[in-house]
Amino acid sequence: MSTEDQTSTDVNLTRRKVLTGATGVVGAIGAGFMAVPFIGSWMPSERAKAAGAPVDADVSQLQPGQMLTVSWRGKPVWVVRRTPEMLKMLAENVTELRDPDSNESDQPDYAKNSFRSVNEEFLVVVGICTHLGCAPLYRPAVGSPDMQEGWKGGFFCPCHGSSFDLAGRVVKSVPAPINLEIPPYHFRTESVIRVGEDPVEGGVA
Questions:
Q1: 28-58 per-position pLDDT tens digit
Q2: How far is Cα 8 from Cα 14, in angstroms, rounded to an integer?
Q3: Catalytic residue set
Q4: Are 170 and 84 in contact (CB under 8 A)?
Q5: Residue 81 counted as domain residue
Q6: Helix spans in 23-172 (H)
Q7: pLDDT of 18-30, one tens digit each?
Q8: Does residue 159 lie in a domain region?
Q9: What is the C-alpha separation between 29 and 127, in angstroms, rounded?
Q10: Partners of 63 in beta bridges
Q11: Number of structural domains the chain divides into
Q12: Which residue in 188, 178, 169, 191 sits closest to 121, CA to CA?
């Protein structure tokens, strides 16, 4: 079997495992990681959001390893609170990435670093695959049982097999051409992130 055929087989098997796993019961550890709270407070009107008004996300209750989602300009924006182990992994998988320094990707200058963030603990990223606009799945745990062998945590798009690390950086040999988009954002306070607005002079970040 050729390398290309083997890769296709691996992607198909992984996709089948992910879709099957999504209908099963998530274990206690997995449930903790998979928690995806949605922000309901401080939201502007639907018309204002569609026009691109900034939205606020309160991360005061977000636990390490968890992700929350807000909607900005009709797009899902994920906020992930990364653990020390997740941050360490970002420096260890560089050789597996297509654009580890984000030179060809879409992010503000202040997020163009190895963590792709203002505060290394919090990743703020648009949750849309850069291949065909599908919605990747959040799989933060190393060796997630529904992922392929060697999974180191990140985001996986079951539509066509694209994978991204926990900084939204795309891995090599997948269909997605560039890293996930980082939107403009800043910390209004230590626990409130404003998505859709660049940092203001004298602000927290």
A1: 344 444 444 444 444 555 555 555 799 999 9
A2: 10
A3: 160
A4: no
A5: yes
A6: 28-34, 46-50, 84-92
A7: 444 444 433 334 4
A8: yes
A9: 23
A10: none
A11: 1
A12: 191
